From TrEMBL:
Organism: Bifiguratus adelaidae
GO terms assigned for molecular function: oxidoreductase activity
Pfam families: adh_short_C2
Family: Belongs to the short-chain dehydrogenases/reductases (SDR) family.
Domain of life: Eukaryota
Matching InterPro entries: NAD(P)-bd_dom_sf, Sc_DH/Rdtase_CS, SDR_fam, Sec_Metab_Biosynth_SDR
Protein name: Gluconate 5-dehydrogenase
Keywords: NADP, Oxidoreductase
Amino acid sequence: MELKAFKIQDLFSVEGRVGLVTGGGSGIGLMITKALVANGAKVYIASRRDTSELAQQLTQAGPGTCIALSADLTSKANCEALAKELSSRESHLDFLVNNSGVTVVDDFMDYPDDAWDKNFGLNVKAPFNLTMASEGNHSRVIIVSSIAGFHGGKGQNQPAYNTSKAAANHLVKILGSNLVSHKVNIVGLAPGVFPSEMSNPMIADKAVHDKVTSSIPMGRLGDELDMGGTVVWLLSRAGAYIHGSVVVIDGGRLLFV
């Protein structure tokens, strides 16, 4: 192989690629969207809220483009409808980033039963349903999970979230083993603590922020460049041989949780 094949502009390029990021208008999803658009990708973002103005702003910044779609992924029918909408717009998707998620924090000893359905519905069923609904229409799938799926979550009071993320981590292996013959690449991404709507209420308290930060060997929370750079790597040629594994991006926090 010639040396030019190893040049960064080719090896890590996502220019011209087309795909979907669910929950791509806020938090970790927005970090991912920004990185892809900044590197020339065409990104559809699906959300229950109106993100059309945000999509226009990202497109203006370019060089890639961003298109907002309205979607509620809490049912199989809705996932299939979103996949159908994308198929009507694009002949093929290069990537699908299943990022939408939810948590319910409540009294651990009296945890609400419906919280389990809510967490598993969006954190596990939706990635499965959307991946299967659009199977054959994309080549690379990322399931955004969490390091919460690897530890006991003592004191977090969100047992359904932690358990659903453990299930999402395993879903990567299940889809990876069953879809490999369909030439679909599956990889999981388990972030630690990043600024987002989900984590902001926790880290807004300085004492809690300092405690969390002190538990991270790298001494800080994750940021946009950490997340964006990792996803660009995974969706580029450089990350093409990673399949059926969950990539942890947490600054080393999982070592001490």
